[in-house]
Write a structure and sequence with these properties.
With 374 residues, the chain is of the alpha/beta class. 40% of the residues lie in helices and 13% in strands. It has two domains: 75-86 and 96-158, no CATH class; 179-372, no CATH class. It has helices spanning 8-19, 58-67, 76-80, 97-103, 112-125, 129-143, 152-158, 193-201, 239-244, 262-271, 297-308, 310-317, 323-335, 345-365; strands at residues 44-47, 179-190, 209-217, 223-230, 250-254, 276-278, 339-340, 369-372.
Length: 374
Amino acid sequence: MVHGSGGGAEALGDVGDRLLQPRMPILPFKLNQDRRHHIPRQQHKVTNSLGALLRSRPAYDASLRQRGSLTVWFTEEAIAAWAAEPRTTRGGQPLSASLTSLRGIAARWYSPLAILTALTIRAVFRLAYRQAEGLLGSIIGLLGLSLRVPDHTTLSRRAATLEVPRPGNADAGAGSEPMHLLVDSTGLKLCGKGEWLLEKHGTATRRSWRALHLGVDAGTGRIVACTLTSKDVDDASQAGPLFDQVPGAVASFTGDGGYDQDRVYANVAERHPDAAVVVPPRATAVPSDTAETAPTQRDGHLQHIAEHGRIAWQNASGYNRRARVEATMSRWKQVIGDELRAHTDERRATEVAVAAHALNRMLELGRPSYVRVA
């Protein structure tokens, strides 16, 4: 209000009316709210293997209930392979069952199957080593089996050297079709004293992370490759280690903009010359020097985006399938968790491999099949 003006109340009222006008929202991010969602959201329904719509989804609902079932059984092959095979060299022989029963000493040697079973239970139920030992012991006791349970120290020691079966692809074979490989990465938090101090005293601390890199089969949804690195390692450097774990041929390699590097294209061309690289070029990308005479795949992406737009390129190249690897990341953090409980790199690598093995086994129980309806 200007000094000496007689309309102070009217001036204040005029300012208040302008502030209450709905044409100019107070919050700046709502300025374009009426025209922001110009792309309609897709709608899907769950179908069965025959393609008919399932209104009640009984098959998929039954598979979800089976995932939470506590029905446990041991096959005859698993019981026979529970104990470690005797060594053929001198020394280090496992104690026999009769000798351990007489002396009351627990057997020290267990097969990789026994260790993998205990570590799988630990990963799925998010237990510590001692709790995993107790749960496995109670299951074996309820089944009436005469199998010894690995103690928590054995689980911790063997986790550093355990060779977990590679995820691989169950359908890979001589007559199988090439795989469409989807790759992505996420961060996993490390557990330690810093988290306890933050929760107990509210002190500021730097959280430590590890980067989890996954390769997912677009057709089956299975995790076929996984690596664990420090947070300073970029995604493109893990294209080679992920390819080393993929069995069979690869039809396409799909990743986000972090894989837009020459070494990724070179790695794909060296291992799978006929595979397509579906990676969005960066906003500052320019065509190569040979774009006119011998265009590369990246040059083709740039030309398609320049002529038809990025959304059209995503639909034409199949880049939208990358959402399936993001769904796998979400399933990992919902089922397994977003943290690593092991304290050494060797045990963390085993923890990640066991988690991927468990998620693939869960996926075998049931997986929804979607069809777009709108």
